[in-house]
Write a structure and sequence with these properties.
6-stranded parallel beta sheet, 3 domains, about 325 residues, alpha/beta, 7-stranded mixed beta sheet, 13 helices, elongated, Rossmann fold
Length: about 325
């Protein structure tokens, strides 16, 4: 029996008063603890694909800032497993649940989140061109409920085309894998077309929005005699990066990607920003917003460091010799 429930009738008035006060304070403490638990800041994380290293990098960023999921923050993860329709549903669910911030992995997720709310802050760890996509008014002053980071893809996309041509000087036809549901890929494709035109290359655009389309488009690329493959950034492609590498190598298509994960999985080359680092840095935007900052005034940060990776084992399997002019600029060689 507790002290509060064990007060005998007719007890000493002063003792009764003291016990009542203690019980009242104890009850207040329980209510306070409950209120604090209820006030844990809530972050919604929505992704087109399933769990990935990007999600892990974001979680690492939170830990580095002192956030422990379930203790002083709550993170609700939602994964659409490649379905854009499901993505719309998940974004709306997060809004209805009353999260304080939404982190949107992929351009499609940003589109879904901004359709679901114009008031809850949205953080994008990466997106192709946030200004041209209409996500922000300017990089310096977003002006809306969205902000985040950009890997400067308009700049590096042309560089990837140039690298492919440098490795394959006789290349005439370049296949480009894109997800048409990703509005950012429209801008990436435009930059690719401009670079290809300067170099006298013909493009073969392969559109894939679901996993079961991949086998078909690779057969198409081979049938139409594509000499190399360039993969435009997309959350679905990253999630399926091992499968894409396997298919490209099986069809003997030299490739260039935007992230090192493809090369570490057996792909030929990659050139781009460290996307995992951008996801880790996205946690700092969440931290600032939870502390009262407005996304409208938080500048979009851009990547400043880009890495070139080359897989020499893949090159040998494809019968290629990587020019010394490329090797001397390589940041890491995968054997």
């Amino acid at each position: 029996m507790s002290v509060c429930s064990g007060i005998a009738p007719g007890g000493v008035t002063r003792r009764l008063a003291t016990v009542v006060i203690v019980c009242a304070l104890g009850g207040a403490g329980v209510l306070s603890a409950g209120a604090q638990s209820a006030k844990l800041p809530r972050v919604g994380y929505v992704s087109l694909s399933g769990p990935s290293a990007f999600r892990d990098a974001f979680a690492t960023g939170l830990r580095e800032l002192g956030y422990v999921d379930g203790q002083n923050i709550r993170v609700d993860y939602r994964f659409a497993d490649g379905s854009t329709e499901r993505l719309t549903v998940l974004a709306a669910e997060l809004v209805r649940s009353g999260v304080d911030v939404i982190v949107a992995q992929s351009t499609q997720a940003v589109d879904a989140a901004r359709r679901a709310t114009t008031t809850i802050p949205i953080v994008f760890p990466v997106t192709f061109d946030p200004v041209e996509s209409g996500f922000v008014e300017s990089l310096a002053r977003p002006g809306r409920n969205l902000t985040g980071l950009s890997p400067l893809n308009p700049v590096v996309t042309a560089k990837r085309v140039e690298l492919v041509r440098e490795v394959l000087p006789q290349l005439a036809r370049l296949a480009v894998l894109r997800n048409p549901t990703n509005s950012g890929s429209t801008f990436a494709l435009r930059e690719t077309e401009r670079a290809a035109e300067r170099l006298g290359l013909r493009l073969q655009v392969l559109e894939v929005s679901t996993v079961d389309q991949m086998e078909t488009v690779f057969r198409t690329a081979t049938r139409e005699r594509a000499g190399a493959l360039m993969v435009l950034s997309d959350s679905l492609f990253f999630h399926e990066h091992r499968r894409i590498v396997e298919l490209a190598n099986r069809h003997r298509l030299p490739q260039i990607f935007d992230t090192k994960d493809f090369v570490e999985a057996g792909g030929l080359m990659s050139y781009g920003a460290d996307l995992g680092d951008l996801y880790r840095r996205a946690a700092s935007y969440v931290d600032k917003i939870l502390k009262g900052a407005s996304p409208a005034t938080l500048p979009v940060e851009q990547a400043t460091k880009f890495e070139l990776l080359v897989n020499l084992k893949s090159a040998r399997q494809l019968g290629l010799t990587i020019p010394q002019s490329v090797l001397v600029r390589t940041d890491r060689i995968v054997q």
